[in-house]
Amino acid sequence: MRDHLFEVDTTPPFLDTTRIMQRADEVGAIQRMLTDPQTMTVVLVGNAGTGKSTLAALLYHRLLMAKNAGLPAPHHLVWLRMSAYTTFPDMLAGLLKSLHAPEPDFALLKPQQQISSLLRAFRRNRENALVVLDQFEELVHSERKELQDIDTHDSELSTLFFEMLQTNLGNSRVLLTSREMLFDEQNSEGGSVRSYLVSRISTPEGTALLQRYGLNASSEELSMIWQRCSGLVFALVLFCALVHVSDVTPTTLLHSNEYQALWQGDVLTNLIALLFRRVTLMQRHMLRGLSLFDEPVPQSAVMATMSNGNQSLDKVYGEQFINRFNRELQTLAQLSVLQVVSLPDKEMRFALHPVLRQYILEHYIDVETENVDGQGVASLGVSGPLNPMQTNPEAQHIALAAGHRQVANYYCALMKEQYPPREQRTGLQDVTPLIAAIRHLCLGYQWQAASDLLFAEGLHQSLPRWGAWRTLAGLYVALISPSGMIQRRDEGLVTSLLATLYGQLGDYSQSQNYFDRALAIQHEVKDVRGEAVTLANRGELCRMHGETAQAQQYFEQAIALGKSQNVSNRQDIHLRSIVLHNMGLLYHIEKEYATAFNCYIHALRLTYQLQEQYDKGTILTNLGLLLYEQGRHRESFAVLLAALHLRQSLQDSGTTLLARFLFGVEQKMGAEAYKHLCEQAIATQEEVFAQLMATQTPA
Description:
This protein is mainly α. 59% of the residues lie in helices and 5% in strands. It has 32 helices and eight strands. Helix 29 (633-649) crosses helix 31. The longest helix has 26 residues, at 393-418.
């Protein structure tokens, strides 16, 4: 199982004390900034490779050691690393959970409510926190966020979050790492936001770092290496790795005419380019494989990318090959070419520095990549251009797609081996490999396979129940044009579901656009039932926005289309149940209680027939609320308590709202009167349900 919250990694980088420079002066300076009463947020700003994440991790571990020793330290120490798929709601939900202040139904709250929940957690007495948000630019500028330009909720939420970071956080503090400054310090209230520029380490620190990596060079050469690498930590590390893998002396790299191109232009990129060409063929395959992952992964994942994702390398190549694989992987880790994530009693995981990963993805097939079991590698030369010749972009895309398909196979195999089957899943932690597999199938141009997997595993039903609305919307967007391409009938279904999701997320305009698109596709392919479902969902969205006449029209059209098929299978009965329930809600709002009651009862009977427990819990809740409004309190509570028990057993996200209603009634009635009412309701529950189910309703 993974050790992180959904879409957000909570594991700080592993610090090898034998290699990492402690940078005590810088860490101390950052800590003093964070203890300034006027400073709420500090941003570590610097170019890639300067060591921003390492500095943040050094401070994090310093405070963790102080806390473990009983010395003054924040009550909560939280580390969250952003990924390409992290959204603001993901981050905020992860923060609240890490601060032991989770908010039920968080995804359904309005942006202002979400920020208020986080602010309350920050301001708790005696529970101050230091929150580190690493690689924050991934959250702000990721190009892969399918919803970044169209999700108004996220846009509003990001604005409110930035405003919150500039307000009073109590005794809590936030530390960000980013490649660019995200705030205007001059306009921040009372200097509440401050930046710390991470540019380069000093000459003594750079020299010491090179020596720690075993570099054998004179003091003058060590100083020259620091200067040519501009004091960038990652560049210095790459130089040491290059010396190790190429058996070229530092003197040669510094002074030989063959290597002068190394020191011209972007030195960091040049070092990466040459190192990528000089590692062994097997190591190059390892790096290529790791570049495809968006998270730290174990050794088995790297192996999977070299064996079609679903075979054991020992069966393919033999034990001798496996031993060599392990040695070469460890060599890359020891050279810090790979980032290592290590937790007690957990399998070690590996990742690439973002700059190295980006380079490999951009030059995926620019360097010769013959079979991994080949015996030799042709000489690549040292005097030619450092940046490989550009290959055909189409060939590059095809190669990347093939790699992503291997990664998808790995995640599918992982799901089968280590995660519960569909009927035993209780939350997002049980489906993370499935979500990853679907994403990588889309990146591998296997959109239909991704769509089939999503629906076969029931993610279209489970993800909304677990609050992962935007995650599901992102998967849908990746499946349909212009991003993807699936069968036309499936495109109609996915577009309809996406329209419904946008409506639930509050983007009414976008929802209507997708409803129009879905209905056009379903009419084109003569998907009558699909049209009926889309009309029912569209009617429900209109009902939620107070457009009662339009909602009723859509509901009636949906029922008429359902009847026109002259069939009575499970799906059509289920659709009729949903539409009747939604029409009940419509009449309920209009206080036409008798008609609403009949709709609820009719829908409830259908759920009993279908054994649809989630729908049953929802209908019972609204039926109970209707009875309460009519003053039939004993009957109401008999129904509502049954609904609460059922929805709690299903871990239904709507349970919280019902519990809040009951708590409000208790506060209004008083504890004793409320207890008496509950006892009466439970004692007569069986009788009440018998009477309700025996009620005569129009067909």
